[in-house]
Amino acid sequence: MKGHGLRVYAIAYLLFLYAPILLLPLFAFNSGTIIAFPLKGFTTDWFSQMVADATLRRAFTNSMIIAVSSAVLATSLGIFAARASTRYNFPFKGGIMGLIMVPLVLPEIIVAMSLLVVLLAIGVELSIFTVILGHTLLCMPYAIAILSTAFNSLDQSLEEAAYDLGETKWSAFRLVILPLVMPGIISALLMSFTISLDEFIIAFFLAGNEPTLPTYIFSQLRFPKSVPVIMALGTVLVAVSILLLTCAEYFRRRGVARTGRTDSGGFV
Amino acid sequence: MTEPQNPDQTAAPAGAARQTKAAGRSAALQAARPMIECRDVHKYYGDYHALRGIDLTIRAGEFFSLLGPSGCGKTTLLRVIAGFEDISSGVVLIDGKDMAHVPANKRPTNMVFQSYAIFPHLTVAQNVAFGLRRDPRKRAEKDEAVEEALAMVGLTGYGARAAHALSGGQRQRVALARALILKPEVLLLDEPLSALDRKMREQMQVELIKLQRQVGITFVLVTHDQEEALVMSDRIAVMFEGGIAQLDEPETLYARPKSRRVADFIGVMNFLSATIVEEQGETLRVDVEGLGEIDIPAAQIATKNETDSAPMIGFRPEAVNVFPEGQPQNAPRQSGGVIDEVVYYGDMTYYDVRLDEEDGTTSEPVRISMRNVFGRDIPDVGARVTVGWSPASMILFR
Predict the structure, then answer these.
(1) CA-closest candidate to residue A189, choices A237, A140, A151
(2) Do A260 and B82 touch (CB under 8 A)?
């Protein structure tokens, strides 16, 4: 029975990872207010309550604004940084790129606290705008890591060829480089969006009185009667995440097929 | 997918390609106007001196090659002509105009890149038409131009294919069509055949020559493959360490290398040490190990490397003959020797022969090539042989 132990380990591992997530929809549709077995009956009340909750709606809107803004900001800035680091040489390149990547390993609570101190010191009022700034800082290293790979896998002659054929430097970039790194850009956008959406510490420190989804969920866990609503919210978030990942993977595979490169990894 | 052209017809042996060179071509080219002129061109990368005073004139309609080992500056020079690299000092003229402030996208040159740089997200036709984007002509005329360009490189009917699905040879052709559709004055080719396998490479060599004769524009080829340069070029500039060591027609380059380094780089050259006996005006009388005394006229004298102490006599493997001892032959001069090694190549055999010295010892082995004739025995290792040669095929490096 070679490999039997490994198989048991793999199954236990997957159960530990995904079984709790499978419980989310189970209790979201359970009519009992207590999160425990046995299940009572089927209901969609929790979903209607969720939609009716004004604070939750506000948290959702805030989270969407923050996630979309910081994803777009981090990816746009990431494009500049990734292109600069793969295409050009400049003084202190290693040091500068290293500093940009630091938030990847810095404890988040340190980043959140220092940002809070600085923002308060220079008198910026806490709002979703300050959360966007914090999340952009946090998402940048991930975006740059993804985009650098995309830019690095390009043959430098492609751009020169377009330039040689009469295009300007900008139109050569737009017509040749941009379409070829587009799968990387979409990946970076989705990755940043996901990171920002479930980020808690920075949102908790920098949002002031504005709720975001993670801070709202945290605040509601104290009240047992609102837990089923949280379950419903969790179910929606899981469904949306799966949908987004599927889209991202679809675009990534289409990009790979279109340029004839060999498929090397991806999300799924 | 088969290649669009019949490979049997075009895969001629490398040597046959030179016969496509029409008589009188060389004279016609000498009379043509200068297309590219470099005057004392220097290029530094920081402290690194990549181009050290390049002076050359490439004429309109010429197939010109820059040949040299990697790092000799040949690709840098090509990129200088294309406009991808600025020069540190000197002048580059294309068709009589100073290119100092003309960027690559405004020059009458187009480039075929070593990697082909085919745009993988476009179709073959979109790739070929890429340079026509800024062309004010109507859509129908552009489509016609694309078809014409594809026909020229033998890819008729491939327009709708995805560029990334093509084979190496087909990508090469798309890159050619994409560059030629703009009707440039000069086509620059950066090691265009190095990524192809041997058979495909020989086929493309012949096709490139035909294409160049057909369109009649100036081709500048960068290569490290001396055979490729000899087969295709009207003239070749051999480059070492950022400078041009010799610029000549292929025949001259091969038969009369001006320095030992050029002789070593192009083909195989045997070297035997020589001592100068006396100077008789322009002619030198030398005593060569294994060959005896030879009179060398000025035309057959080249320079040797500074590091070599003694003068050397050089000759090509095919410039001498080898026969079993005692077999009569009509060579002007004959020397005795022993076969050290035999390498059989099918059509040819290479013999490494040690030549007899006057003091009873033998020389270092020299390589002699003989075309195999059906029915003639190939001498064995250790056999005594006679080497027949002529002073006219000897070059003195002093």
Answers:
(1) A140
(2) no
Tell me the torsion sign for CA atoms B69, B71, B75, B77: negative
pLDDT in tens, B198-237: 888 898 999 999 999 999 999 999 999 999 999 999 999 9
B395: in domain: no
Q: What is the dihedral of CA A68, A71, A75, A81, to 10 degrees?
A: 130
B contact set with A (CB within 8 A): 82, 84, 104-105, 109-111, 113-115, 117, 119-121, 130-131, 133-134, 162-165, 178-179, 182
Nearest residue to A62 (alpha-carbon basis) of A224, A199, A189: A199
- How many beta carbons lie within 10 A of that of residue A173, not counting itself? 16
pLDDT per residue over B315-363, tens digit each? 999 999 898 887 777 888 888 899 999 999 888 999 999 998 888 788 8
On whether both B53 and B192 belong to a single domain, the answer is yes
Q: What are the structural domains, with CATH classification, of chain A?
A: 41-259 (1.10.3720.10)
Angle A128-152/A54-87 helices, nearest 10 degrees? 40
Phi, psi of A91 (to 5 degrees): -60, 145
Which residue of B105, B114, B120 is in closest CB contact with A168? B105
- Looking at the structure, do residues B281 and B300 belong to the same domain, yes or no? yes
Q: Does residue B397 fall inside a structural domain?
A: no
Residue from the list A155, A161, A260 with its beta carbon closest to the beta carbon of B165: A260
Q: Number of structural domains, chain B? A: 3
- Is residue B190 situated within a structural domain? yes
Same domain, B52 and B38: yes
Cα A21 from Cα B275, distance rounded (Å): 92
Helix (H) or strand (E) holding A202: helix A201-206
pLDDT computed for residue A224 by the predictor: 79
- Does residue B396 fall inside a structural domain? no
Per the structure, the complete domain to which residue B364 belongs is given by 317-390
Q: How many CA atoms lie within 13 A of B154 on its CB side?
A: 18
Please indicate, yes or no, whether residues B191 and B117 belong to a single structural domain of this protein. Answer: yes
Q: Are B169 and B154 in contact (CB under 8 A)?
A: no
Q: Are residues A209 and A176 in contact, defined by beta-carbon separation less than 8 angstroms?
A: no
A&B contacts, CB < 8 Å: 64
- Return the residue of A nearest to B178 by Cα: A165
ipTM of this predicted structure: 0.80
Report which DSSP code applies to B162. B
Q: Do residue B247 and residue B268 come from a single domain?
A: no
- B159 and B250 both lie in a single domain: yes
Could you tell me the CATH number of the domain that includes residue B294? 2.30.30
Residue spans of chain A under pLDDT 70: 1-2, 255-268
- Using CA atoms, how far apart are residues A174 and A213, in angstroms rounded to an integer? 37
Cβ(B343)–Cβ(B350) below 8 Å: yes
Pairing of strands B186-190, B218-223: parallel
